[in-house]
Amino acid sequence: MKIVIAGNDRSIKSILEQYLASDGQQTTSTGAGSDALRAVQLQLPDILLLDAGAMNAAALDVCRAVKADAATRRCKVVLISSRSQPIDIITGFSCGADYYLSWPFMLSDLKTTIHKLAAA
Q: What is the CATH classification number for the domain harbouring 39?
């Protein structure tokens, strides 16, 4: 699987990259917002792990843009957020996310999510 990890926190991106690489995934990381969208458009990954922090508007806009573009809409989007209220999860899915993970989560949960999305 080709996975783009997008967000502003370098340490989180590094942890996710190392963990997913150890699972045999091909990963690259990028910044948030327009950097994330550009990476998806250029690399056409299977999955975008999008760190939405506290559900910031830029991350939600990236999710919407990925799903609105015929060239990128097949990319599965996993929103990762520090918010876990039902309204936040609903908002994430309404923007087109295929899956929503709330911090903190077990890395094994992320691995399971990626394998489920790959099989879908």
A: 3.40.50.2300
- Which residues 6+ apart lie within 8 Å of 107 measured at CB? 15, 16, 19
pTM: 0.95
Q: Which residue has the tokens 């573009």?
A: 69
Quickly count helices (H) and strands (E) in the chain: 5, 5
Full domain range(s) for residue 9: 2-119
What is the number of structural domains in the chain? 1
Q: Which pLDDT tens digit goes with each residue over 17-41?
A: 999 999 999 999 999 999 999 999 9
Asked whether the beta carbons of 110 and 83 are under 8 A apart, the reply is: no
